Amino acid sequence: MAYIIVNENHIINQIVQRYKLEIEYAKSILKEIVATLKQQAPDDWRFTISPSARFFVVHLPSQVKILGFSYKEAGADIVRAIQKSIKNNTIHNINLDRFVNMYLEALNNSNLKIIHHLRTAYPKEKGEIGEEKRIISSLKRELSHIILFQEKKFSSRPNALIINGQLWVRQQYNWIDMRNYNKEYFLFKQLTPEGIDETKRKIFSYSVNGDIKEETDLSGCPYCPSCHLPIKKLESFINFRTESYWSLPTYIDRRLLDLEFRERSADKTEEGPLNKDEILELYFLRNLIEKVRRKIYKI
């Protein structure tokens, strides 16, 4: 079972405002999304291999598009210790070097719980992941060959679909006609708690205005034998994990993300501007991350 946390009230309000839906229907949509993710996604699943760790899950009947952020449960104890010191006016006792060592140890842990945090509802025609756009933009500058895709295309694609209590996830294949950039096609497979069911495949089209539609006349793969693609770790390689695991952010990264967003865009958040304790917390977390970065990257 996947571990899901939700900005429930915020997402419901965004669905009502951005999709012009009744509040009870918005609540039922979010309830179905959360229940399906919890029940159908394995606890070790990642919805994207991108190091940004952001993903889109779309409720197909309503086309509602939810932004999620995955991270490893590492560093929560450090954040709580910093918060406690700030609250008790004992910040002079904070030993940042000790926290650096604790965090480095956590980063090397191959058995951390993976959390999927559903954060907000995006308009379907404008929903883009800013971090993905920046990654692709940087790649296009660095690579010697020409990449025709626009950043918007990479950053707006759905990673998962909710269809009548079933969870379908986008796989590696997609098709697009570069002469007609308004529509592309994706291969989705059904995800179960045991892994990907290779016998259940569908092709969906995704248009420039955000519409997602199953292409029933395009067969996914009707000739597959009955099989599941397991995603569990190999028992004989207990400390080996995929690159997508090691590149996942952590709880500390998520907390820093939230604080920095409120620092620069307080008017767009429900919590508003940072209070004095949170300003101090932001200061310590930035220093902690910088010290860890210097140790890992040896700069």
Name the shape in a single word: globular
How far is the first residue's CA from the last residue's CA? 40 Å
**Helical coverage, percent range:** 25-40%
Beta-strand residue fraction: 25-35%
SSE class: alpha+beta
SSE arrangement, N to C: EHHEEHHEHHEEEEEEHHH
Number of domains: 2
Major β-sheet, in short?
10 strands, mixed
Characterise this structure.
- This protein has 299 residues and is α+β, with helices and mostly antiparallel strands.
- The protein folds into 2 domains: 3-72 and 115-129 and 155-242, no CATH class; 75-108 and 250-299, no CATH class.
- Helices cover 38% and strands 25% of the residues.
- It has 9 helices and 10 strands.
- It has helices at residues 8-19, 23-40, 76-87, 96-107, 130-142, 151-156, 243-246, 251-264, 276-297, and strands spanning 3-6, 54-59, 64-72, 114-122, 160-163, 166-177, 180-192, 195-207, 212-214, 228-229.
- Strands 1, 2, 3, 4, 5, 6, 7, 8, 9 and 10 form a 10-stranded mixed β-sheet that branches.
- A hairpin with a 2-residue loop joins strand 7 and strand 8.
- The chain starts with a strand and ends with a helix.
- Mean pLDDT is 86; it is low at 221-231.
